[in-house]
Amino acid sequence: MVSQILYVIYALLAFSFLVLIHELGHFIVARLNGVKVEEFAIGMGPKIYSYQGKETMYSIRLLPIGGYNKMLGEYDGANGEVGEDTNFENLSDNPKSLTSKKNWQRFLIIAAGPFMNLIGAIMLFAIVNIGAGGFQTLGVDSLTDNSPAKEAGILPGDNIVKIDGNKVKYVEDLKNELLKANGNKVTVEVNRGGDVKSFDITPAKGEAKGDYNLGFIPVIAKNPSILQALNRGVYEVKFMVKLTFDFFKDLFTGKADIANSVGGPVTIVKVSVAQAKAGWLNLVYFMALMSVQLAVFNILPIPALDGGYLLLYLFQMITRKKISEQKVGSIVTVGFLILMGLMVIVTIKDVLFPVNI
Questions:
Q1: Which of 36, 66, 73, 263 is 20 to 30 A distant from 251 in Cα terms?
Q2: Which parts of the chain span the membrane according to its record (predicted)?
Q3: How confident is the model at residue 352 (pLDDT cuts 50, 70, 90)?
Q4: Is 115 a member of any domain?
C-alpha cells in the first residue's frame, strides 16, 4: 500500500514537472518583455502553499491538473478577472501590462510554453537514450533465418537509407514506411561500403496488427555522446509530433478508437504509475511523450488554450485590426467552460470505461 502511494506521488510529480516547464516558458519570456506576472501557479483550485516574491506570488494549488501565469492585463477565463485592475484602458497604458505589448511580443510569450515542452521532451528523450546505454540504428547487425531481407541479399554491415525512395534514419521511420506499404513489396536501398544497392522485398507480417518487418537485428549505437543523444531526442520529438497530429486527425475524422485511445487525468495517472513501477527510464520516456502531447494539445486553435491566443495575435498582426479585450475575455470564458466540461466528460469516461493499459 505504501509503495503504491509512492508510485502515485511519483506520477503526480512527473506531470507537475511537465506543467512547470510549460509555465516557466511563459514566465521567462513575459519577464524578458517587461510583463508583470502577478502569480506563478502549479496546480489548480485552492492554494496549499504560496510565497510572495518581489513582484510575483509563487503558489502550489491543490489539484495537480495544470498551472498558470496570472499576468497583469491578461483576462483569466477561469474567474473572469484581469490582474490588479479591471480597467482595460488603464492597463493598456501600464508598461508592465500584457495589453500594452505589441502582438508579436504577446505571441512569443504564449508560444514559449509549448516550445519549452518540446525542449523538455528533447532533454528527456536524451536522458533515456543515455540511461538505456544506446539506441537502435538502421545498420544491419545480423539477419534472422529465412527472413525477407536475407533472402533478398541484404548483408550484415549494410545500412538501410531509403524505403520506396523515402529517406529513413531510425527504426521508427522504417516501421512507418512498412506500415504505409501494408505488407506490399517495397524497394529497400542500402549503403554497402559507400555503394548504394537496391532490393525489392516483401515484408514479413508480425503478430500485432500493422506490424511488418524485414527480419534483421539492428545495430545499437552504444554509449551515445550527449550530442548524439540530443540529436536522437530531436528526431523522436519530430516523430511524436507527427504521430500526435495524425491522432488528432483520426479523432476528428472518426477513425480513432476513442474507447482505447482517449484518456483524461485518471488514465494519465494510471499509466504514469505503471511506468513508475516499470522503472525510472520508463517513467522518463512516458514523461517525454506526455510533454510532446502537452505541447501539441496546447497549440490547437481552441479558445482558452495557447493556440487560441496564438491564432488571435496572428490574426491581429496580419490584419492590423484589434479585437477588444472584452470580446477576447468573453470568448476565453466560453472556451474555458467548454474545456472544463470536456474534462469532466473524459474523467467520467476514464472511470466508467477505462483505457486498457
A1: 66
A2: 6-29, 107-132, 283-316, 328-348
A3: low
A4: yes
